[in-house]
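Look over this record before class:
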Amino acid sequence: MKNLKRILLCLLIIVVIIVLSVFGIKKNRENKGSKISDQIFYEPKYNKNYIKKISTINLKNNEIKNKYQFVYISDLHVSAVNEKEPDEQIRTSLYDRNKDFYGDEDSTIAKNTFKEIINYTNNKKANALLLDGDIIDSPADSSIAVLRENLNNLETDYLYTLGNHDWSFSWDYHTENARNTQIPKFKEFMDDIDVSYLEYEDLIILAINSSTDQIEEQSLDKIKKVLDKKKPTIVMMHVPISTQELADKSLELRGRVSAVGDGGIEPSESTSKAIDMILSDEYKVFYVLGAHIHLHMEADLNQNIHEYVTEAGYFGNINVIKINN
């Protein structure tokens, strides 16, 4: 009788252990599938014929408790060659500019690169795709169609600010006509042409239009309104803020300084006010993203704010920004 009780007790213990084990495995699987961090650390495969280099920017901020990940690109300079374009000047320009940036062996490289970046961002499950200007090389209808198609296929948020080429043809570069007829084409891609942003629980990504080498007067109140939220903020602008070090390096490598501020392009009064706000201790900007120069450069704008200037996307370069990973 005692032996029977021992056998039954042992069987009961075994059954309990099995049930707990199965439940624990199921629970672990459920938790693993629901963790954002598992998605953040996932590295998808990508076509190295189009994405040739991925630079990782690791950021830490004690006021940010969540983990974030963004794909950041600029200067793709997509010129979507279109043999059916009725305007001969535009048709020729698309071909010539595509050749300048991507060579003439394949007119689809630019479009395929953009598509691969979209696929990578989707598979990476990034919080957003950040587009820092000159994504297209002109406001030709065929290039805007490529922009629209790719962003429609994006499965996450995006933030887009204009570059100096997005909205102008070379023969109508930054004219009043271009402002009035071309810039409105981009309203479908951003909440506000001057200033737009993505806001999270403990982070803001603020995009400021500097595509004319300056920040316009009408942007100042909009910038202040976002900065007054007093959340940790990353600022993104196509034309970077200059330091003397950055200006010297730009001049050495490119023969000109394509940044605004110290040693570079003389800032207008409104630009100076905008930069002062960005760098002010009153607000919580901790990082600035810049583009335009087509070279990788970095600089300390002050003791608290670092600037990262990215390489051009038409080289096949993209960035992954990881916060608190």
